[in-house]
Structures are given as structure tokens and as C-alpha cells.
Amino acid sequence: MKALLIVDVQNDFCPGGALAVPEGDKVVPVINRIMDLFPLVIASKDWHPKDTVHFKKWPSHCVQDTPGADFHPLLNASNLKKIFLKGTKNKDDGYSAFEATSADLAGFLKKEKVDELYIAGLATDYCVKATALDADKAGFETFVVEDAVAAVNVKPGDGEKALKAMARAGVTLINSAEISKE
Questions:
Q1: Catalytic site residue 65?
Q2: Which residue in 2, 8, 12, 14 is the catalytic one?
Q3: Which of 5, 56, 65, 161 is most buried, judging by how many CB atoms fall within 10 Å of its CB?
């Protein structure tokens, strides 16, 4: 079975948010359009405590129970079977959805008999990359939907470098138009 994992499409990562990904909101219509192609749709959320050490590296963002941690308002979150919270502890960066502390993502996917995992969301060069590499290591055939991800690009080109690193590791880069319902 195949599944779609939506990584961190949260208010703080979209324009106007505390750690906005340039044009991060552009992934939302693509994600909404492809959701129906998957029998299983899940998501991750950054869910940081307000005093996490993670904020020594990054501006405060996606703080637990704040509007910034909510999904983007146009994301069709009603289709989500499960949400995996990450970065929930004071000393937890939680880049990869496989580091979720609310539930075991790999175990959940195996229980659901998922063998193909498609990843979309934010940000290409951090949480998407970490999640895709961990999915590949966990034995899932892993795809990153290129037109459904956006990069922070702390340094120009970081997003492109991340895509190349994922491809070198065995992750398949795919366009949303190439995904079939089968």
C-alpha cells in the first residue's frame, strides 16, 4: 500500500509565520489535490515546548498549543488518519517525522502495510530531507513530491542540494502529475 506523509505544513512555516519558508504556502494546493490518490494520508507537526534548546538554533516556532503550530488553514486536514508530533521535548530537535514522540511512525506504517511512502511539505532542506532519509533507511520505497515541497534555503541552493542528497541516497524524486491512484 502507498501512503502520503505531509511534513510540517504549519502556520509558522508559511508566509507571515515565525520561521517562514519562502512560498511555503504554495505546497498546500498541490497537497490537497493529491490526497485523494492515497488510501492513507498522515502528517507530522513540529510541536515544541516554549523553552526547547532547539530555539538556540532557530527562532521560536511551532510552540505547542499556539496558532503558529496549527496546520495552514487551507490544508485539508480532515483527510488525515493520524498526526505525528515531533520536537516535543526540551532537548529534542525533531527534524524527522520518524523521531516523533507521540507515536512510532515506522511501526504505524508497517502495521498499515505501507511499502511506498510519498512525502510532501516543509522544508525540503530540513524536515523533509531528514524524514525521507529515515524512511529510506527504515526500508520504505520513498518518494519526495518535488512540486509539493519548499525549502528554507538558509544558504542559496540548500533546497536543491537536499534534493540531490536524497536522490543519491535512493529516494525517488517525483512530480505530483506522475502519481497514479493505483
A1: no
A2: 8
A3: 5
Residue listed under C-alpha cell 488553514:
73
Catalytic annotation present for 86: yes
pLDDT value at 76 more than 80: yes
Q: Is 70 exposed, middle or buried (0-12, 13-18, 19+ CB in 10 A)?
A: middle
pLDDT of 89: 92
Mean pLDDT of the chain: 96
According to the model, what pLDDT value does residue 92 have?
Answer: 84
Over range 5-19, report the average pLDDT: 97
Which of the residues 25, 86, 93, 125 is marked catalytic?
86
Whole-number Å distance between alpha carbons of 12 and 5:
19
Catalytic residue among 14, 25, 93, 127: 127
How much is the average pLDDT of 101-105?
A: 90
CATH assignment of 2-178? 3.40.50.850
Q: What is the pLDDT of residue 25?
A: 97
Residue 142's SS3 state is strand
Indicate the domain borders of the chain: 2-178
Contacts of 67 (CB under 8 A, 6+ apart): 11
